[in-house]
C-alpha cells in the first residue's frame, strides 16, 4: 500500500484512453471488417475515431472520453495541491503559480472539448463535433505548453531534483511531436485527403496517451513525502516541514548568548536573588 498514491490518477486516465482506442480500432478492423460508415466521405476507406464512435460504440466513446478527462484533470489538481502542501517541489514564484493556473484552465477547456466531441458525434452534429475537436486539441496543447514552461522554471531553480528536468524534456518532445502531427492532420482535412487525415488522427490520439503517462513522473515523488518531516519547505523554512531555517536558528542562538549558561537572568546580574534576599 505504500506505493499507492496520486501517481495512479494519470495511470487510470492513460489506461482508459488506450483501452478505448484499441477497442474501437480492433472493433472496426475485425468485427466490422473495415466497414464504410455513413459519416465517411466518398473517397474515404479508413475510419476516423469519430466515425467509429458515432454508431454502435458511442456509449464506449463517451464513457472512455469522460473517464480519461476526469482522471487527467484530477492529475493536474493533485499536482497543484501536492506542491502547495510541500509533498512536491513547491511553486514559490508568482510566475510559476500563474503558469500552473493557466495549465489547469486550458486542461479543463480541453476536457470540455473531449467530452463534447464524443457526445456531439460527427454523423448528427458535424460542425459542433469539429468545433469541439479543435477545442480539445488546442486546449490540451496550450496546457502542455504552460506546464512545460512551469517545469522549465522549477528545474532551473531546483537543479538538484533531476526529475524536474526529465519531466520538462518529455513534455517538450510531446509538444513538438503533437504540434507537427496536429498541423499535418488539419492540412489533410482541409485538402480533403480523408485517409491520411484519419491515420494522423489515430496517431495523434495514441501519442496523447504518452503525454498522460508522463504525469506519473511528476506525481511519483509524493510517495516519499507522506511523513511531514520529509516534505519540501517553503521560503524561510528548512527541508523539514515546520522546522526553522538555519538563519532563524542562528538568530535564536545569538539571542541566547546574552544569558549566562545555567541561569535565566540577564548577564548584567551576577547571580539570581536568593530566597533570603530582602533588598536594601
UniProtKB/TrEMBL annotation:
It is a multi-pass membrane protein. The keyword Membrane applies. One of its GO terms (cellular component) is endomembrane system. It is found in: Endomembrane system. Residues 6-221 form the CWH43-like N-terminal domain. It holds the Pfam family Frag1. The chain crosses the membrane at residues 7-30, 60-78, 98-120, 132-151, 163-187, 199-223. Keywords: Membrane, Transmembrane, Transmembrane helix. It comes from Plectosphaerella cucumerina. This is Frag1/DRAM/Sfk1 family-domain-containing protein. The keyword Transmembrane applies. InterPro entries: CWH43_N, DRAM/TMEM150_Autophagy_Mod.
Amino acid at each position: 500500500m505504500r506505493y499507492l498514491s496520486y501517481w495512479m490518477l494519470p495511470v487510470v486516465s492513460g489506461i482508459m484512453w488506450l483501452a478505448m482506442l484499441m477497442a474501437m480500432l480492433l472493433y472496426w478492423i475485425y468485427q466490422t471488417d473495415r466497414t464504410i460508415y455513413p459519416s465517411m466521405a466518398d473517397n474515404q476507406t479508413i475510419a476516423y475515431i469519430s466515425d467509429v464512435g458515432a454508431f454502435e460504440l458511442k456509449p464506449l466513446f463517451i464513457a472512455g472520453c469522460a473517464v480519461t478527462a476526469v482522471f487527467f484533470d484530477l492529475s493536474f489538481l493533485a499536482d497543484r495541491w501536492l506542491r502547495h502542501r510541500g509533498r512536491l517541489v513547491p511553486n514559490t514564484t508568482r510566475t510559476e503559480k500563474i503558469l500552473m493556473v493557466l495549465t489547469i484552465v486550458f486542461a479543463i477547456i480541453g476536457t470540455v472539448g473531449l467530452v463534447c466531441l464524443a457526445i456531439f458525434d460527427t454523423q448528427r452534429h458535424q460542425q459542433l463535433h469539429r468545433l469541439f475537436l479543435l477545442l480539445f486539441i488546442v486546449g490540451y496543447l496550450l496546457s502542455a505548453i504552460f506546464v512545460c514552461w512551469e517545469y522549465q522554471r522549477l528545474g532551473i531553480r531546483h537543479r538538484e531534483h533531476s526529475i524536474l528536468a526529465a519531466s520538462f524534456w518529455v513534455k517538450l518532445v510531446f509538444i513538438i511531436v503533437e504540434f507537427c502531427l496536429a498541423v499535418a492532420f488539419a492540412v489533410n482535412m482541409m485538402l480533403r485527403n480523408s485517409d491520411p487525415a484519419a491515420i494522423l488522427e489515430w496517431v495523434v490520439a495514441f501519442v496523447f496517451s504518452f503525454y498522460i503517462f508522463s504525469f506519473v513522473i511528476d506525481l511519483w515523488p509524493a510517495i516519499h513525502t507522506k511523513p511531514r518531516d520529509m516534505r519540501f519547505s517553503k521560503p524561510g523554512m528548512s527541508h523539514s516541514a515546520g522546522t526553522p531555517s538555519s538563519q532563524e536558528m542562528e538568530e535564536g542562538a545569538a539571542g541566547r548568548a546574552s544569558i549566562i549558561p545555567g541561569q535565566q537572568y540577564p548577564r548584567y546580574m551576577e547571580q539570581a536573588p536568593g530566597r533570603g534576599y530582602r533588598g536594601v
